[in-house]
Amino acid sequence: MAPTLQDVSYLLGLPLRGDAMGHTDVGQGWRDDLLDRFGRVQHSSTAQAYREFAPTHTGGPPKWWILQFKADDIRVGATEYEVARHLEAYVLWLMSWVMFCSSAGSFVPKHLLPFARYIADGPLEATPQFSWGAAVLAATYCGLCTSCLKSFGAEPIFGGCPLLLQLWAHERFQIGRPAIVHSPYEAYIVDDVDGPTMGSLWCDRRFAYAHVQTRKSYPDFVGQFDVLRDDEVRWEPYSVEAVGSRAPEGLSPLCVRDAEYWRTRSPLVFDIYVEEHAVHRVLRQLGLFQEIVVPRSLLPPHVHRFTRQGQSVGQLWAPRLAEFVAKWTTALDHVVLEGRPHDDAAWGHFLRWYLPRT
């Protein structure tokens, strides 16, 4: 099992249609440009005095600097330019500490700066459209891969989108999820864009965890998964019945707008990371027939190992990612064409083939 683009759509409502979020090479003068644009912003009288960040922050602006531009600090009578800078700061915070978390916990990775500016300064009708959902899933896959390969606990950091992984697990497993009221959504306004997602249940309601404590929570947690039975997994949490019972008035249209991308095998791209969308290995999650002999990876092994470690500061990544950024434009040409419904007997055959190989 694994999170897929279908989960991204239903849980987060992020668009899949749009350009891949490949790496954008940022010039050496990014700091001067950023401070020049934000230095012209006047704050409210109650805000703390504005401070610039030092040139030693070569990876990107620090978090404390971003937080100087909170919505509460917008002055009365602020210009459109000043509001745009506050929006840009919020988008940087959202990307760095919700969507694309990384080990650089104290600053915004500088490669995200152009994307935030596109949103803040571009005309609404001409704002570049990016595949935010594919980028979030790529970052999460990368974070999972990195975490699973760590051999020591000196740096227990999970990158990507922890929120996506948490919501995905809550929907499918009873292990580790909080107790929550599952009554239908109320007081949501659904229009052409806005509306709840399936993940709104876990974000908007009060919840509680069990009061039983253990000193060995991680081994206990793993042990519960080891004995998890097939019939204890919620394989299809987005069925018509499940959606209707949770959201009688409907979900945000973004939850299903890009459904044609859910079965694409095109590589997912975020920054310098390229990940395979191996949806052909988890077709049961989509209620489809699972083939026993699954196709091999379409991604060359060396591409999956792209890393900044050991690279020069001025390394140009955009040309190296161009091939995979371009491939996303043809994502709908690489869709898994499986129309047969799930079959328990075929699933048993698949498990007997799969388990000895893991």
Layout of helices and strands:
Elements: H1 5-12, E1 21-22, H2 30-38, H3 63-66, H4 80-99, H5 113-121, H6 132-148, H7 162-172, E2 179-180, H8 200-204, E3 207-208, H9 217-226, H10 240-246, E4 268-271, E5 273-275, H11 301-304, H12 318-327, H13 344-354
Parallel strand pairs: 1-4
Antiparallel strand pairs: 2-3, 4-5
Structure characterization notes:
The chain has helices at residues 5-12, 30-38, 63-66, 80-99, 113-121, 132-148, 162-172, 200-204, 217-226, 240-246, 301-304, 318-327, 344-354, and strands at residues 21-22, 179-180, 207-208, 268-271, 273-275. The protein has 358 residues and is mainly alpha-helical. The chain has a domain at 21-126. The strands form 2 sheets. It has a 3-stranded mixed β-sheet with strand order 1-4-5. Strands 2-3 form a two-stranded antiparallel ribbon. The longest helix has 20 residues, at 80-99. The chain starts with a helix and ends with a helix. The mean pLDDT is 88.
**What radius of gyration results from the CA coordinates?**
22 Å
Number of distinct helices: 13
- In terms of per-residue confidence, which ranges show pLDDT below 50 for 5 or more consecutive residues? none
Count every beta strand, where a strand is a DSSP E run of 2 or more residues. 5
Distance between the termini: 13 Å
Q: What fraction of residues sit in β-strands? A: under 5%
Largest sheet: 3 strands, mixed
pLDDT averaged residue by residue = 88
Order of SSEs: HEHHHHHHEHEHHEEHHH
What would the principal axes of the Cα set say about the shape?
globular
User: Helix amount, in percent?
Assistant: 25-40%
The strands making up the biggest β-sheet line up spatially as 1-4-5
- Structural class based on helices, strands and sheet pairing: mainly alpha
InterPro entries: AminoTfrase-like_pln_mobile, MAIN-like
Protein name: Aminotransferase-like plant mobile domain-containing protein
Pfam families: PMD
Domain Aminotransferase-like plant mobile: 1-354
